[in-house]
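Fold Annotation — chain and its backbone

Encoding — discrete vocabulary of local shapes
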Amino acid sequence: AAGGFSSKFSNCMFDGSVTASGDRVGGICADGDAISNCTVTGDINGNNEVGGICGYSSSGTVTISNCTFSGTVTGSDYSVGGICGDSNGNVNISNCKVTGNINASRFVGGICGDNQGSSSAGGVTACIFDGSVTAGGEAVGGICGYSYGSGISNCTVTGNINGGEKVGGIYGFGSGSAISNCAVTGTINGTNNVGGVTGLTGEISECASFANVSGNVSVGGISGSCSSCINCYATGHVSGESEIGGIVGGPTSSSNANNVTSSYFGGTLSGAGYSYSDGNKRCYIGGINGYDISGANKKCFCLSQSIEGSDDPDVDNIKAFISALYLQDKPGGTSPSYSYPAITDNDDDCFYRADLGDAPGIGYDGEPIAIEPGWQQKFVDIGWDENVWNIPPTDPSSPDYSLSALPTLKNIPADVEQNPKVPGVVDSTPTEEESSEEEKSGDSQNSHPEWGEREIHGGIIHYVNAEGMTSVEISAENTDANGIVWLREESDGTAAWYGVDNSARTFESGSRFYVQWLNTTEHPEAFADIDEEIRQQVEENRGWLFKIGVIAPDGTRYSTLSNPVNVYVQIGDDWDKGDLQGFYVQQGADENVEVSYVEGWPYPEGTDEFGVMQLNHFSPYFIYDKDEAKPQNPATNDECHMFIFLVMSGVLTGVMFITFAKLLSIRRKNGEENYFTNTLI
């Protein structure tokens, strides 16, 4: 056991690092049962039972309060947390805050790795985690990795939670540990039983998740698997292979019930298909409940504008707007054993937005509800508890009325910003003439018809015009937890994601973020601002011009920036980050440009590797080498392909080259081959 300073501690401070090869390692103490008002800044490293404040805590009553940790906690295996690694007893951890990174293999949490005790002592309350939790194994959470017999309430999590099985924004795996009044923002990634609030648990109430959630089987906006979820809502993108739900992915194996009451989902869903033990691929996916055997769904709303199953013809999509019903001849579950017909008469008073389309009719879809002035009255009519919910104004004549406004929770921490909106709904009311024109064009669900045809990728509305330009609107709904606005561009059969960092509010809400590939043959006008020498090189090497930019609502194009902006470019696994180079050339003087390479970066469809460029000049131009046909992005052939970022501010006063080079074999030897045959400067 090792500690920065063994039972009762108060008003202590430690700034530094603690490293031990054994168990029970803490910044203040190795083992303690009463700790208050302590602060640790630094790095804490050990084997098992490692905590930023306390490694292990076990007695009749465990009390840890008003403690703060900032830094990194790393354990080699299990029971690792930002405050306490392992707590056993009548646990009460309250008013603690962790900022930083927590790393181990399993049973890992932002506050406590392994929390076992009695809820009579208070459990974990009013704690805050802001950072990342990373593990390869099971039971991984933003507050607790594993929680038994001790409740969690009034906690908030902001950050990235990554693990294997049983991963959740608040806790990964719980038994007899109810969760209430909690909120999560960020990204949650795992394999099976992954949820915005919990991975696998019993009861959840009055919780909100704004997180993007991704996994394989049993993936939910609130919980991967649970027995009861009441008075909750989720607004992020939820993706997986099968048993994917806007609120709950699937039932717990012990009860086969996943009851959802008075909850709504306002995000998007996508599924890829899972190969079950009978050899068949299926994708169970539901707007509220992803895989329903005997669950009761009552007073729920699916407000998603996109529930997408797999495009693979070998995948059997079993989709429902509310609850994807278990089909006896098409069993789900990673280890299916249930063989009786599903219970089908226990759902009531559930609704889906009418513009979602025709109900699939396989499971329980509920009733359509049109998003029209006054529609929120339905929450009141079916009896949502107004002691729990702030129901938005329902009278369209009210000056505070908003067509897109959604209910918020009264009892989650006050510092949580709640501003949920019905996705894709514009609050402004069109004139009769405008409405008529929309009806004629069939574009009533397209808020920017002048930008092109409407598509949805990763839960984000895209617009693609006749020239192939892809655009998204810069808005709160299209901005992730890291402040990045994402866009997916596809041309010539290849696609990639691009992000622009707007966390500093550089670009005005309502601006247009766009991307377009062009070549010199079809679009010579696009090359007009490039000087003759560069244009000639582009034409000789069959180069492609890649336009990327942002246009303000008033039509002004952003060029020179008041604050540096990061641009993210999706890169494949075969790119070598050691070959990333960047420089800014102006009037013959080279200036280095920072280029970084990040792995496992969250984007709307999961996580991937990205090149990140910090720019002081923003412009619409990228150039990519083209040899006969545009190479795949990322390059996969055995050449030195370069992805080049050409920045222009108004007219060409300088050139920015951000070069991504895959150097497997560079065939250039003392002039025997022109280097620019396969690359473009």
DSSP finds three helices and 67 strands in the chain.
